[in-house]
Write a structure and sequence with these properties.
The chain is mostly helical. It has helices at 13-46, 50-71, 73-91, 98-123, 125-132, 139-149, 152-168, 173-176, 178-197, 200-227, 251-275, 282-293, 295-316, 320-347, 349-357, 364-378, 381-395, 403-426, 428-449, 459-486, 490-511, 521-534, 538-551.
Amino acid sequence: MGPDAGPRHTPPARGFLAKAAAVTAVLTALGALLGLVRDQILAGYFGAGAETDAFLVAWTVPEFASTLLIEDAMALILVPAFSRALAHRAADLAGDDPVRALVRGTLPRLTLTVAVVATALVVAAPLLVRVLAPGLPDPQLAVDCTRLTATCALSFALVGYCSAALRAHGRFVPPAAIYVAYNVGIIGTIVVLREPLGVRSAAAGVAVGGVLMVLVQAPSLLRVLRSGPGPLPPREPETAGPAGDGHLLVLGLIAPVVVFSLARQSQTLIERFLASPLPAGAISHLNYAQKVAQMPMILSLMLCTVSFPVVARALAAGDGEAARRRVERDLLLAAVVVLLGASTVIAAAPQIVELLFQRGEFDRGDTVATAAVMRVYALGLLGQTMVGALVRCYFSAARPLWYPAAAMGAGLAVTVAAGVPAAHLWGAVGIAGANALGITATAVLLLRGAHRQAVPVRAGLLGEGLLRLATAGAWATAAGWLCSMAIRPAALSVTVASLVVAGVFLLFLLCAPRAPEIPPLTRSAVRRIAHARRRAAPPAAEAAPVDETAAVGRDVPLRRRPR
């Protein structure tokens, strides 16, 4: 039975999060796989040239909207809002339902506002293209594609709203399935309309995919709002404040989150602006490299996405210690996942690109160019992951803070300062390097300031642990690179490099002095089973939620215990 089904009671925190993480992992992997298929179809049908550059400039709109309305701003504002509304409903069942009051107070205004923005984007498409990519050889094609992709501003806003509400209610299956629906819409539209529309079919697919993302989630949200709380994550009986969460949409409260999200996505805007005067195909090489290189980051942030409502609810109950342990545990595990992926990408980049894209209009020259960019992109993956995970320390509380936006602005300034000369000297590779440098600077700033925020993580100990994990990744990368050069068939080379990277990485963690200790999955599983047996009696099951939330992460010390 998945996290979206079951009797109406509060499930055990660890069991619930394990099921949610497993379901989310499967659907995330499926969405990522379909994203690769989508990119393979784009590369095979249209190659890496002026047409794909024009489409990718138009694709900036949905990428920007996705970050702002689905992944960052909407989730970081509404998940805590719904979590506090749920906590208030649990504490006081009398009167108006605070969750439904929150929906009535926010959803109509959000829909109207974003509909106006989407219409403005459609009308202003020519100006938008000139601003985003002034050096395009075929701006009219980019304008046509932009008018099609601009419709996703409305659909993505509804998607982000539904995702935040469902995750706060403990429903993780529909939000995890949105990118499956999105990529199915794009792939299907390209296959059906490629002949009459050309690359415009991909832009039309973005519009279709956005509608499918809404349809995947809307039925579940309607059921939640009609039936009441249902099965929720661990529930705290106290609240941190009143249930008037509609006030979260006051400009002074949402502005820090929005500015942070805009600044974060502006990295992509800067990349495409700097790449537009370069030879045709530069924007496409950056895009293909980024999509593949960021897959480890997407998987590593999956755990943080699942546990974010737990952190928000712990803070709503005033349990900052439980939130801190949860965040520290997630940061270390996410770092392990992303470093394993980044090491593999750097070690076997040409073979990965050859295996995925080298067919049809995508030739050997495109493979070499994309692989070079991908290796440089991968250097910033740890920073990307840390930014995505650490920002939850700042935005989990009732009042979002300005520090993340300032840190992201500083990182953006580093990207611009490094990107302008690097683009002239090294082209697309230099732009990717500037991106990695800027996001790493942001991650360092967020880590240094995290101990003073709502979730006071131990920045010094975390920084030490992350540095040692990065050292393990460097050794693993070198070993995997040597193996990938010695083996010619692409599929076999990638497989061997992946195994060598994982083996060397884990060997370093086992043998290096003071390496951060990551809990074995078997030990965690045994502890969960034993704890479930102790909770078999009904009284224990009723008393468990607060204890379980506080216990999350206790078995994940940041330093190796003395022997």
